Each structure stands twice: as structure tokens, then as C-alpha cells.
Write the C-alpha cells for this entry.
Amino acid sequence: MIAPAHAADWTAFIGTYTRGASKGIYAARFDEKTGKLTSLGLAAETSNPSFLAVHPNQRFLYAANENPQGTVSAFAIEPATAHLKLLNTVSSKGSGPCHVELDRAGQFLFAANYNSGSVTVFPVRENGTLGEASKSVQHSGSGANPQRQEGPHAHSANVAPDNRFVLVLDLGLDQIMAYSRQLNIGATTIMNPGSGPRHMAFRADGKFAYVLSELTATVTAFRYDGRTGSLDELQTISTLPANYTGPKSGAEIAIHPSGRFLYASNRGHDSIAIFRVDPEKGTLSATGHVPTQGKTPRNFAIDPSGAFLLAANQDSGSIVEFRIDQKTGALAPTGAALAVPFPVSIVFAPARR
């Protein structure tokens, strides 16, 4: 029997790779006042829901089903039980979709197909279902790293705060393409050869954007031009300690709701890197690292209140919680953790009565 929700309760939905014991999307009750996490078990059975997105109206959830024949699934959220009801599934028009994001109005959903190197847009209907893809754009070319950049690999589709452009990061091409919401191409930003841009975070005011590069484990700070979708590089900074010589693999990036701190996850080093954001210049200062107490922190999420960070350790099957120091951005483990098989993505939705 699930305890009644109160005003500070949220549901954390967790996307996974469905291997071993994993069956799909899992759920946990999260109390933002105390940080308490309570497992609610399997919310929906679905294949390889590796990345999730919640609709702005918080009634619907969408999952990238990261399979060779890629699909995207739409679900209705039942707040009281945290169950997800499948609404429909559509083709992603590519292989290995690994990221989905909605525009700010909830009218369109964008999917990045990693294996095939393409980006697709879908209309979102009022009932939460997805229409068939209205357009898909295939990238072409290769990058400097022959093992990882033999062809295009679209890794994320990121909607700017003003809702005008969606910026698609292609790890295989070392490029960031700014598209209109109808996927008409605009400005293209070229990254350093072999960097492998993966995920992106905007400051809420849209003045600055931050790109995490997977292959070099670096964050690049940009000034963002909302009129054209172009990016002006300000700085590139490592997510790893200066003396670290092990494998590099950046995974996730997020900016704190206050705009004062930025975080990035390191696989291999198994840590979260912490940065302070200069409020005027938008540049970053490294302030430290915290171990995620697990293996391969692929994704993490900051709760809606900005008080806690949840790290998803994919290969050790755990969600580990940290309290965020509101003055310094430092992370301190709370001792709370959940066992979830192969966790990949975490999103929040309100848990209403």
C-alpha cells in the first residue's frame, strides 16, 4: 500500500537498460523536505527505456527505446500510484535513440538516434499520444577518432530556453547543429576534433550554454545567441582531477536551478565534478569531485527544489543521493540509496493525492 502523497512529494521515474533483472521504467517516491526515497517498483514494462522526458503539463512521460529498430513510447502518469499507462509507440526513424526532449510548450518531441546519426521530430497530441514523425534529418560525415567517430552519432537534442531552436549534439562529427522546431537547419558550431559532444545544459536565462564532451571529459562554456542559435566559445575545462590518468568518459551535465553551480558525471573515475558558475561571465571554476559510491554514473538529476542530487550508477545498479550545499554547491552523501537494475535516466513528476 503506497502512503498518501503530500505537497513536497515527487515521483522519480528511472529509465534503464532492460538486461538482467531490469524490465523497464521504475519509480520511487521522493520527499523534497527530507530527501527520503521509497521504492515503488516497476512503473511500466518496456524495452530499453534509456532516456526519459516529462511533458510540461506533467501528465505524460516519454521514453526513448534504445534498440536497433528505434522507437519512442508515450505514457500517461498516474500520480497516486506512479504507474505508467502506455499510450502509443512510434518509430524513431533511426537506430538506437538515446535522448528525447520536449519543446517548452509540449507541442513537439525530439529524438536523437545515436547509431544512425539522425534527429527526428514528432507532434504531441492533446491526449499525450505521439503522432508519426513529421520530419527526420540524417547527419553525414565522420570525426577524428576512428573507433568512436566513424560516422555520425546524434547524442542529444536540447531545446533552448526561449523555445526557438533545438541544438543537436553529434558525438561522431564534433558538431552542434541548431535547428528550428521544424528541423530546418540554422547555425552549426564546430567543436575541437575528437571531443565528442554528448549532452548540454542551458542557464535558465538562455545567455550561456554548457556542453559536456564524452571523449575528452571536458565542459565547454558558450555564450548563446538566441537570435541565430550560434554559440561563442568562452572556455573549456576538464571534468577530471589534474593527476587522473585512467579512462575518460563524460556522461551527464546539469546546472543548478540557482544558476550558480554546474555538475558533470565521470564514468571510469566514477564521480560527479562540481563547478562554480561566474554569474556575469558564464565561465566555470572547478571546486572538486565527489565519488558516486557506485560504478559508471551515467546520469544524475537535481530534484525540483535544488536541495538534492540523485546519481544513477548504471553498472552497480544503484541510485545514490547527495545533499547540495546551497552556498558552495558541494555534495554530501545522505546515506539514502535505492537498488535499481541498470539505471540510466532520472526524471521527476509531482505525486498528487
